[in-house]
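Module 6 notes. Inverse folding takes a fixed backbone as the condition and produces residue identities as the prediction. Think of it as a translation problem where the source language is geometry and the target language is the twenty amino acids. Below is one complete input and output pair. Work through it position by position during the lab.
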């Protein structure tokens, strides 16, 4: 789609360009339209080869590479959200609903809710009492959803337009790979700008866990009760994320990493690393600091 086809109030096209998707910087999508808000986003953009068009402020516009489509707005993030919502309403940019496919052997509790369309549920799955499987959710074989859990919920993402608070429409979905287990009263959010939030094979999600939109959780992970995973987080395989811990948006947690209980993670965690604390640091260093205090 051409930038010039999505003109909205306050948007000035400096260089027209084509885009195939909308997303965040470093989100894996082809030929993205993104919002560049500050110098740090410009720095991140330099390693993201998927960007084809950008919306930014007048102050930053001359720093955007010449090969990209460019639009200028006083509020780039808000403008991106408005374009996204308009394209959702248009119905041609994002994938539409699909016919549901539910294996005849799936066990769905009478009190559970499964959306009437755009759901795929494989063989051997179990949907517990008062659980919900919403539109654009794909459950591969032998997935178990516990009581009260919600798969495919929309995201609390908004912008202010005059005296209104407007919701940003979630158009993506959720994929739970085979043998995933989600215990009671947990929530897996669907992606916003198309694509999928994804949970890898054999990963187990405990009670009262929140998985943010467009996050990718690897295989054989354990995510313990009351943990919160932010949006667009990548978690490697065989990783343990402890109870009441928080992983902030747009981070990566490497294979076999260990996030101890109550930790608040605000930077990437390397493969095999164990972190502790608020804000989380290397576990052994944290223990040494505690010993000094005591």
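Target side of the pair, the amino acids:
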């Amino acid at each position: 789609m051409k930038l010039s086809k999505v003109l909205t109030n306050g948007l000035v096209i400096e260089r027209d360009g084509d885009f195939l998707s909308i997303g965040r910087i470093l989100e894996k999508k082809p030929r993205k339209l993104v919002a560049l808000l500050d110098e740090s986003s410009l720095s991140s953009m330099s390693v993201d080869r998927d960007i084809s068009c950008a919306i930014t402020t007048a102050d930053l516009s001359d720093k955007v590479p010449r090969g990209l489509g460019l639009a200028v707005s006083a509020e780039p993030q808000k403008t991106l959200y408005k374009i996204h919502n308009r394209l959702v309403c248009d119905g041609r940019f994002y994938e539409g609903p699909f016919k549901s496919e539910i294996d005849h052997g799936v066990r769905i509790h009478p009190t559970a809710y499964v959306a009437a369309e755009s759901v795929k549920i494989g063989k051997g799955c179990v949907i517990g009492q008062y659980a919900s499987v919403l539109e654009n959710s794909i459950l591969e074989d032998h997935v178990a959803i516990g009581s009260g859990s919600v798969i495919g919920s929309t995201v609390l993402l908004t912008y202010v337009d005059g005296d209104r608070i407007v919701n940003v429409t979630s158009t993506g979905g959720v994929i739970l790979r085979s043998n995933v287990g989600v215990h009671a009263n947990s929530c897996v959010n669907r992606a916003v700008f198309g694509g999928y939030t994804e949970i890898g094979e054999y990963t187990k999600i405990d009670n009262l866990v929140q998985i943010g939109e467009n996050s990718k959780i690897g295989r054989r992970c354990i995510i313990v009760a009351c943990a919160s995973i932010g949006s667009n987080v990548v978690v490697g395989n065989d990783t343990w994320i402890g109870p009441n811990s928080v992983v902030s948006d747009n981070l990566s947690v490497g294979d076999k990493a260990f996030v101890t209980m109550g930790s608040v993670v605000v930077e990437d965690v390397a493969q095999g690393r164990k972190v502790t604390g608020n804000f989380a640091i290397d576990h052994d260093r944290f223990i040494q600091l505690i010993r000094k205090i005591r």
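Reference fact for the lab report: Helices lie at 39-45, 76-90, 283-293.
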